[in-house]
Amino acid sequence: MTLFSQAFRPVGSAKVDPVLIALWVSLILLALIWITPFVFIVFTALKSNATVMGASAFMPPTELAFENFAAAWWRGNFSTTAFNGVVITVIKVPLGLFISAMAAYALAKVPMRMNKALFALFLFGTMLPFQVMLAPIFRQVNAFGLINTYPGIILPYLAFGIPYQVFILYCFFSAVPKELSEAARIDGASHFTIFRRIFLPISLPVLSALLILDFVATWNEFAMALVILQDPKMWTLPLGLMSFQSQFSSDYGELNAATIMTVLPAAIVYLMFQRYFVAGLTSGAVKE
Amino acid sequence: MASVDISGVKKAYGAVAVMHGVDIPIRDGEFVILVGPSGCGKSTLLRMVAGLETVTGGEIAIDGRRVNDLEPKDRDIAMVFQNYALYPQMTVAQNMGFALELAGRSKAEIKAEVEKAAEILSLTALLDRKPAQLSGGQRQRVAMGRAIVRHPKVFLFDEPLSNLDAKLRVKMRAEIKALHQRLKSTIIYVTHDQIEAMTMADKIVVMKDGRVEQIGTPLELYDNPANLFVATFMGSPAMNILPAIVQDATVLVAGVATLPIVAEAAPGTKIAYGIRPDEIAIDPASPVKAEVIVVEPTGSETHVTARLAEHEITLVSKARLTLAPGDAIGLSFSPDKHQLFDAATGNRLAAAG
């Protein structure tokens, strides 16, 4: 009761604030809307196919059909697709962040003649919707003979991930007082030492935020993988999910179990890093 | 420890020249303070000595070796910044030991140096803290500690006390001066605060618009300023400057006061008459009358701003005055304490003053 009534009052005030009530109500409504599909997926994943067809979609499962997960894993070839997803994500995400951080440091802190033009080029990269580039990229990857290979998918991922990360990190590095790198220069540090020993540690929150965004985006990426990875042995999880749907379209229980297994790693990574995520998105945005 | 020779140093950003040939000789172990208003080029000059700015013309030599084209780390200098520039993710000990670590010194050596410096600066208890957990004064001391551990030939300070509150500034002023006496190192220190300059320096360099106006000991500058700028910049409250006209053996100041002078100027010459606030006394018998505008008691002394003809003048009295704005007071000017300047050029007139 006290907790509930406190939520509707401004701190230190005895009066209930109608605006706060309205905000709480809309917050709860929004949360309900967002959580509905998850409830549907989890419930359905735990139902046998007969129950899915027979009962309402939002009825809790009466008997938990955990066998859906085992069946989905086996039928959807998850050991292959999960392995591919891990290889691609674990190489692409850290490598992309490292390249972006170095590029952003060079643009922000190393005086060069072309800094502005290069930064504009990166900005241009953030503006290109990659669907537009799907066909040309396919031709190029094909020309290099990289269709159905890890480099064939990782290189385009890097190309489309880096501009946005460079933009964010450039803003962050630019806001770092120049005295910090000057002090390090006087202390005898080279640019690479300054980058590794000073700038990387202080940008950990931003890097964590970018890591989450990039991990989730890479793990769940569908269109580019569909075009470039044509051999089912090279498929990632979202591709495996697609084939699942067409092959076993009648078995909703297994489909949803597969969906949960696909989304789970991304959700875990997100939860692990999300406290940095919030801090990271605002840091560097405002100059102190 | 080393001498520093700055000769004919110029700085230009593109076509815009900001420093027009600066010569400053600095002896081994000297505490030199560069002082001047914002934009006078004092910080730029310090950064050129540090190697953080390129030198457009002239030469900077440390210990007789030309350093114009050397990297900062090869100049054997250490710098303390206004905003401290401590590495936020490192502890106090790591901050202080960073330069030694980069120089490849052993862990034991670094530890010994850091502990020695920490002891000098009373930072021993704080060695494991991060900069964010320190107060402003403590951060300032860590920044100095970072400089001390390297035993540089020259210490450079760029307005190190500007971010501290007034009380702490006075304390740190004394600490830096004591540190200099202990280490006997060469220090170049930049400030816009003339009191800092007066109290700490062996030698003050007054700069304005990218030029050196005067170099001298604090009291030399106070007693014998080379020109109007130095006269009004050094000393607080500032020296009163009044327009005057030379007569035979006297000078007519502000059109109202006739005062005795001996100056090498022809009668009728227009000059600027300067007198420090503590050389003006309140004297009811004096024929020179002024009207009180503001009375500022500071406790030990009282500052009075008064209107003499159409000019405002400031005087400082040791006495506790019971004056109110609007009161009429008589003023007497200490004879022989004035300083006379050419009204056109601002340069000091050779005078028996």
From TrEMBL, chain A:
A biological process from GO: transmembrane transport
GO cellular component: a single term: plasma membrane
Entry's transmembrane regions: 21-46, 82-105, 117-138, 150-173, 194-217, 255-273
Bilayer disposition of the protein: Multi-pass membrane protein
Cross-referenced CDD domains: TM_PBP2 (cd06261)
Compartments where located: Cell inner membrane; Cell membrane
Entry superkingdom: Bacteria
Span of domain ABC transmembrane type-1: 82-273
Keywords (A to Z) from UniProt: Cell inner membrane, Cell membrane, Membrane, Transmembrane, Transmembrane helix, Transport
SUPFAM superfamilies (alphabetical): MetI-like
Stated family: Belongs to the binding-protein-dependent transport system permease family.
Subunit annotation: The complex is composed of two ATP-binding proteins (UgpC), two transmembrane proteins (UgpA and UgpE) and a solute-binding protein (UgpB).
Described purpose of this protein according to its UniProt entry: Part of the ABC transporter complex UgpBAEC involved in sn-glycerol-3-phosphate (G3P) import. Probably responsible for the translocation of the substrate across the membrane.
Name of the protein described by the UniProt record: sn-glycerol-3-phosphate transport system permease protein UgpE
Underlying gene: ugpE
From TrEMBL, chain B:
Locations listed in the record: Cell inner membrane
GO molecular function: ABC-type transporter activity; ATP binding; ATP hydrolysis activity
Topology of this chain in the membrane: Peripheral membrane protein
Keywords, alphabetical: ATP-binding, Cell inner membrane, Cell membrane, Membrane, Nucleotide-binding, Transport
Residues in ABC transporter domain copies: 4-234
GO biological process, one term: carbohydrate transport
Any one cellular-component term (Gene Ontology): ATP-binding cassette (ABC) transporter complex, substrate-binding subunit-containing
Similarity field: Belongs to the ABC transporter superfamily.
PANTHER family with a match to the protein in the record: BLL2173 PROTEIN, MALTODEXTRIN IMPORT ATP-BINDING PROTEIN MSMX
Name of protein: Sugar ABC transporter ATP-binding protein
Organism annotation: Xaviernesmea rhizosphaerae
